[in-house]
Task: inverse folding
């Protein structure tokens, strides 16, 4: 048993200005540590720190049960928006005949998503940092529903401009959606599940693309009667509008700005930063001066731009080699995306387990190139089952790369906002997506599908080489590791009562806290 402490000497020590090195050795270490915090000199040092940093030092981190509901809801309205992106391209020939327009005009319905994203990214990212996640979610889901309802006014062949307007509104919604997966994952999820959460968020968007390949060819058959065709299109548009509206209502009810407590040490550090210190413009400039991030931004744009071009032109490629196979063209697109969803989910789980961001990204990039080469030379063989297999392999790696890029960027750019870094990645993807879609379409028209696909292969090769030069400077993992080490080495001392007593510390109450702590430690 420890000898009872002389109350007078402990009381004097708590309110004195004695350096910690001069604390009497008769006191147990917990009491010495408490007195160190409460002495006049050290009290000033402790209380000069932000409250959030004090909480962080003593492990004030926990995850919220609501996080899965938020993630599921985001994935759902992201799914709906992605479905509306590809619903025209998956039955390109049907809409060409219904509206009496060229294939290039239908391609632009897809490319409108890419075009509107580029100038609007920075205003939306600024709005995210200034007004928060909930406003972004409400705006994105509302625009998604509005665009779906506008399309219902385009059910006559001469109303193509109306369907363009509806698609442009949906493309505006995409700006509020596409860059959010890594941001939601970081704000709501702990360090051991953040990559999985990001993969699930991307998973929803990819599932929407998959359904966009599968559902339109089934709901809108290629019939000759224009009135029947309009009826089938109306069913698809009504279903989309109903789902989008229901999701908007759920966002209003369920979606919250952020959890009550930071879910990770890295997020707690970000929340402890005073608002006045953060400059959105300076953040962008810092990102553009980060050589590793710039390399990743270009390589992400090359890979994702190839995926956008492939998705937009898939119907044209398959119909060229397999006439009358619109449904199978949609199923091939479905195969690409479903296998990619599996790849995205597995890559997220792998990253959470191993943290090998650079190695995983490089391997997936190499396999995307290999998959694209194999797909290019098997498309024209005349065997649909071979195309299904090679398209599935291509999708597993090419689509599975998407969440890897988001998470690798978040690691390289911490503590910058994930919304800003992922937004810049998506700007790169949209620019390359537009360029690749137009270029590959022209190459296919003049030289055939093989030449168009080899065009994409050359840029995937370039992206693979550039990825090899990215250095794995994992700043977010380093921050989590350092703070977990700090927490594990710190005694469990309640900080809040000390803060309440900062203006007028009472020796007797401080002594009671010290004795209680001493008994707990013993």
Result:
């Amino acid at each position: 048993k420890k000898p009872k402490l002389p109350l007078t000497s402990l009381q004097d020590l708590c309110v004195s200005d004695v350096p910690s090195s001069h604390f009497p050795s008769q006191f147990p270490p917990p009491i010495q540590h408490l007195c160190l915090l409460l002495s006049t000199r050290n009290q000033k040092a402790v209380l000069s720190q932000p409250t959030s940093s004090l909480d962080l030092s003593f492990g004030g981190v926990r995850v919220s049960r609501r996080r899965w509901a938020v993630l599921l809801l985001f994935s759902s309205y992201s799914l709906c928006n992605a479905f509306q992106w590809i619903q025209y391209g998956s039955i390109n020939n049907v809409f060409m005949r219904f509206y009496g327009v060229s294939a290039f005009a239908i391609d632009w319905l897809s490319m409108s998503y890419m075009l509107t994203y580029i100038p609007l990214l920075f205003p939306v990212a600024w709005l995210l940092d200034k007004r928060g996640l909930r406003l972004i979610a409400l705006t994105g889901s509302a625009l998604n529903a509005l665009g779906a309802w506008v399309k219902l006014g385009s059910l006559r062949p001469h109303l193509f401009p109306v369907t363009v307007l509806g698609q442009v509104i949906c493309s505006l919604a995409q700006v509020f959606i596409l860059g959010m997966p890594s941001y939601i994952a970081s704000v709501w999820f702990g360090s051991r599940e953040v990559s999985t959460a990001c993969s699930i968020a991307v998973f929803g968007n990819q599932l929407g693309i998959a359904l966009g390949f599968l559902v339109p060819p089934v709901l809108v058959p290629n019939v000759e009667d224009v009135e029947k065709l309009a009826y089938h299109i109306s069913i698809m548009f009504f279903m989309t509008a109903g789902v989008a509206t229901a999701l908007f209502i759920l966002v209003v009810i369920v979606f919250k700005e952020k959890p009550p407590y930071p879910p990770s040490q890295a997020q707690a550090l970000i929340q402890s930063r005073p608002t006045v210190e953060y400059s959105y413009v300076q953040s962008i400039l810092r990102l553009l001066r980060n050589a590793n991030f710039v390399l990743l931004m270009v390589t992400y744009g090359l890979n994702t731009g190839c995926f956008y071009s492939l998705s937009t032109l898939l119907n044209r490629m398959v119909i060229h080699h397999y006439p009358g196979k619109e449904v199978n063209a949609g199923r091939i697109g479905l195969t690409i995306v479903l296998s990619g969803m599996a790849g995205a989910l597995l890559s997220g789980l792998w990253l959470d387990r191993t943290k090998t961001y650079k190695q995983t990204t490089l391997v997936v990039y190499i396999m995307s190139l290999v998959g694209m080469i194999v797909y290019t030379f098997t498309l024209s063989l005349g065997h649909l089952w071979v195309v299904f297999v090679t398209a599935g392999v291509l999708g597993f790696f090419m689509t599975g790369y998407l969440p890897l890029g988001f998470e690798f960027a978040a690691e390289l750019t911490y503590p910058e906002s994930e919304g800003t870094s992922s937004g810049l990645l998506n700007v790169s993807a949209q620019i390359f997506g537009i360029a690749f879609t137009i270029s590959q379409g022209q190459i296919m028209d003049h030289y055939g599908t093989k030449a168009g696909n080899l065009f994409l292969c050359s840029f995937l090769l370039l992206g693979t080489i550039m990825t090899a030069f990215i250095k794995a400077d994992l700043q977010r993992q380093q921050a989590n590791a350092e703070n977990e080490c700090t927490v594990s080495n710190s005694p469990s001392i309640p900080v809040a009562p000390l803060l309440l007593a900062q203006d007028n510390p009472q020796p007797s109450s401080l002594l009671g806290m010290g004795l209680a702590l001493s008994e707990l430690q013993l």
